Amino acid sequence: ADEVVLLSKARVVGDLIYASDESASIATGAQVTGETTRTEPSQYFVGDSVTSWLMSPLFRLLCALIAGLILILLIPIASAAVADAARLAPLTSLLLGLVLVIVVPFGLTVLMFTIVGVPIALIGFIAYFSVLYLSQVFLGLAIGRLILPSSWDTRSRGYNLLAMTLGVLIIAGLRMVPFPWVGNVIAAVSAVIAVGAVAVAIRAARRPAVLAVR
Asked: Which of 19, 48, 55, 127 has its CA 20 to 30 A from that of 79?
């Protein structure tokens, strides 16, 4: 903890063991029946526990970069298509995403109550939450492709990796702005746009096939 304070009416039955850079402030009248032991916080984690590290913005950023790396290496064309949908049709992606983030979970939940629909619902939920988690990657890639010169080879993995890294760093920086709810709002908007952009990209990918059949 950054600060440990025992007020005058505090009663600790047993030992008081804590990790902090500063000694505890123990008011007159406070009682500790056992021993008081202070240790230095771990230098390997953000905070004093593994949980603090797992919940830290730095760890989230690292996970996003790794996820983006894997995504672009495995499906570079599809990733770029989703990013371009968010970049070129942001309003459409936002409005469509607002509808889908409500309709999709509701529809999948209804399927869960049917025997035949349970497998489909489980697969759907996995895909849905995967898109939500990867929203910062898709939106980061869109931002990066918007910033980097279009004269470069926009189809190459190197270009998209650089664009993704740049965009994800920008989003992470914005989420760290010390204002209430800023991080949550950015995360929510990113998720909505990403869901809508995936739908726009799928519709655009199917259009040539439909025209070919006709």
From this structure: 55
- Say if CB 9 and CB 30 are below 8 A apart: yes
Question: What is the per-residue pLDDT across 149-170, written as a single tens digit (0 to 9) for each?
Answer: 888 888 888 899 999 999 999 9
Q: Which of 56, 52, 24 is nearest to 38 (CA)?
A: 24
Helices (H) and strands (E) in the chain, counts: 8, 6
Mapped onto helix, strand or coil, the DSSP state of residue 2 is coil
Digit-coded pLDDT (tens) for 31-71: 999 999 998 776 544 454 555 555 667 878 888 899 999 98
Tokens of 25: 């402030």
Beta-carbon neighbour count of residue 62 at 10 Å?
12
Cα 164 from Cα 145, distance rounded (Å):
8
> 192: which 2 tokens?
């909505």
Residue 201, both tokens: 């990209």
Residue type, 91: L
